[in-house]
Automatic annotation (TrEMBL):
InterPro entries: CsrA (IPR003751), CsrA_sf (IPR036107). HAMAP family: CsrA. Belongs to the CsrA/RsmA family. Homodimer; the beta-strands of each monomer intercalate to form a hydrophobic core, while the alpha-helices form wings that extend away from the core. A translational regulator that binds mRNA to regulate translation initiation and/or mRNA stability. Usually binds in the 5'-UTR at or near the Shine-Dalgarno sequence preventing ribosome-binding, thus repressing translation. Its main target seems to be the major flagellin gene, while its function is anatagonized by FliW. It is found in: Cytoplasm. Pfam families: CsrA. Keywords: Bacterial flagellum biogenesis, Cytoplasm, Repressor, RNA-binding, Translation regulation. Its main location: cytoplasm. This is Translational regulator CsrA. Gene3D superfamilies: Translational regulator CsrA. It comes from Kineococcus glutinatus.
Length: 79
């Protein structure tokens, strides 16, 4: 992990197209602005984790889904 010290108004450049700028520092809260191409997804960590967890849950096979699929395969073989 790279650790940098920046003051309000200062920036960090990532690659050729992403700029992270410190907008404001108030006590222990820092406001950050991110300039990135539209095709680059930018999420807060808690949002990213929630989306990832929801995707894993949606992709998990349940016993009901497996039973239904087995029944469909059996029915397809008998026709």
């Amino acid at each position: 992990m790279l650790v940098l010290t920046r003051r309000a108004g200062e920036s960090v450049v990532i690659g050729d197209a992403i700029v992270v700028r410190v907008l404001e520092v108030r006590g222990d809260v820092v406001r950050v602005g991110i300039e990135a191409p539209r095709e680059v997804q930018v999420h807060r960590q808690e949002v990213y984790d929630a989306v990832r967890q929801a995707n894993v849950a949606a992709a998990a096979a349940t016993e009901d889904a497996i039973t239904a699929l087995q029944g469909a395969v059996r029915n397809n073989r008998s026709t």
